[in-house]
Amino acid sequence: MQIRKNIKNVSLLVVSAGIIFLNSCAKKNDAFVNRKVSFNADWSFHLNDSIIDKDTIGTATKWRILDVPHDWGIEGKFDEKSPAGYGGGSLNGGLGWYKKTFKVAAEDSTKITSITFDGVYKNSEVWVNGHYLGKRPNGYIGFQYEISKYLNYGEKNNEIIVKVDNSKQPNSRWYSGSGIFRNVWIETTDKLHVGQWGTYITTPKVTAEKASVNIETTIKNQYQESKKATVTTTLYKEDKKVTSVTQDITINANGNQTVKQSAEVENPALWSDENPELYTAVTEISLDDKIIDQYKTTFGIRDFKFDLNKGFILNGKQVKIKGVCMHHDLGPLGSAINTRALERQLEILKEMGVNGIRTSHNPPAPELLQLCDKMGFIVMDEAFDMWKQNKTKYDYANDWDKWHKQDLIDQLLRDRNHASIFMWSIGNEIPEQWNETGIEIAKELAAITRQYDKTRPITAGMNPPVNMNIDAVTLQFEKKNVSINPLAGSGVLDLIGYNYAHQTFEHHLKNFPKTPFIATETTSGLQTRGYYDAVSDTIKKWPVSWDKKFEGGNPGNTVSAYDQVQTPWGSTHEATWKIIKKHDFLAGMYVWTGFDYIGEPTPYEWPSVSSYFGIVDLAGFPKDVYYMYQSEWTNKTVLHVFPHWNWKAGQTVDVWAYYNNADEVELFVNGKSVGKRAKKGEDLHVMWRIPFEAGTLKAISRKGGKVVLEKEIKTAGNPSQLKLTADRNTIKADKNDLSFVTVDILDANGTIAPNANNEINFSLKGSGKIVGVCSGDPVSHEPYKGTKHTALAGKCLVIVQSGDKSGRLELTAKANGLKQATIVITTE
Description:
Structural class: mainly beta
Distance between the termini: 49 Å
Strand order of the largest sheet: 22-23-24-25-26-29-30-33
Number of helices: 9
Strand content: 35-45%
Shape: globular
Radius of gyration: 28 Å
Number of strands: 49
Helix content: 10-25%
């Protein structure tokens, strides 16, 4: 095979920086030795760009040095003719190669060395020193190869080559990204060690006074003789030891053994969405009184159930799941994972009141789950977007028969200790849900899931669970002429997962008298941040039907930011939440979507390239409806008034206010009251329809006649200056940390210019680089990997990444006719 010949040739010719891995001896009192190290730095990358080198690499191949995680798709140009289509973000895939040379210490020759990839999109194949390790088609699941027997130890170089084939398009309904887009690790262990994803921790009995903790640990013995060892598991709360259990074992040569241990925790600190308390289990294997392996597992102690009548019960308390669905891309950073970028998304969502994340529609990066554990999110961990039947021509359905079992097992083993995960989803809007084939597949997937984790319920996103004409729902229920989705009625699922069909929610107990409810996907409201239609109280359904091309819309492919545009299968944001909040038996919802994402620009096609669904735009700037949720989902006192106050003289403008903790809101134009408004019945906002008059729009919320909050919006003059605001002014000098800098275009008085769309140029001094620019405009074709970008509604974002040196980063923004701005970010 030509590929192997080329790999051997490259192996002899490539010289690059190597990394020596020194496996430190474990200290008896050090409970947190990490046995794996990052393998992200100093890869070489080549993207095939011609027919000649389509499936080969050789001595003439040109490479560039980079660090992974890496997404080559986000570096490309938007292309109307991209085979990925507008659904895939109009960005191209292709076939790419990664290689890296490294050294391994001579003393590690008696140990086990493995390489772990957290995710490679897609069809990855891996070679070490010319030896073929294997292939994984699924881009979202992690995998590991042991490479010990192929390595050179000491001074001689080793080489790893990874082929990534994302050339067959379309294979996704949204932007997937391409490449080694998640972290890579080298793991070095003794031949007697805890296996990959080798612990399983459960808490079968939990009270406020005491919790039982069961630990199952899979031990691997790769010695040629049996071993007598001691396994000790110590539980920690932060750095304080809680309890410890020890067991002596004898394990056969080249054998695996599962060790079961139990402990009790007195007065446990219970994990919840409001107080995400975590524990750490440190498992140590000792031979002859010497610790030879340590394995750390983070877990939480909590008691929960989904109740038919009371919804979701967490630690004895009824909790409404207020969640959002999230795709895996990070906006202008593409699909290359970055922990700080994930953390920022979650911080923004937490501020809104979100307490739940659905990993739509694939296994997420491990870092997302770690953050959800720490920050308090109720996670629906989802496995598949399709089973055997395709949704796009080259998608995972083509690999289903060979790979689905392994991929699901790996996801369960990897994720099942996370405190934040409360349900498994085995599929999203699966075509087979409507027939017997789907029931049989669901039974298989559910059986696999229960084999590896019996502590969490299983669901699927069904569209809808009740097979009906949604427009005639009331009439059908009156006649009791309702048929049940075969998958929903099969008894396979522990939770009935509703995708949309919000009109049926109130009838759930009639249709499914034995199975609790979860709204797996809701709403699909559409907005462009900062754009407003003249009349706000008419509901528009765009497109007319999911299977019909959308004709019409607004100039520039915009969508009104009032909560008035929905898909025909969904609802406005207010409509679904009004139903969910009303009934105890409705456990909660996951809104489509928390953030905008690249691709799937419903209701439009090209030239739109990113979605309109997000409550937060692609740059991370909240849309107005964010504050409706904040007023409903948090205890923060909210008064959000919109739109902006720059219109034509005399133009009629609808002014909305989201508010809470108050009885009413009074609106003033240039000091003159235009009336008080109070929410009535199920209202979630108030509105005034008034003629525009330049000056100041002021809103005052009151409770019991006393002022609660005041907000002003002023008419802006001509754009005059730029303002830079960093989410963090000090970041780590680790080549990974990020500072997200918001650029506001202001008039001479410091008022944001809401219609400004100036092109802004950026420059950076110091040990760092600009890694992303974005305005949140779904129609923008400017590259996200650049140093200039056009603002949307007076705002733009620039993302700065640290280098490896401490010091100052000086970011400057310039635009024609505007006063420039500079901000200093410290790295340390």
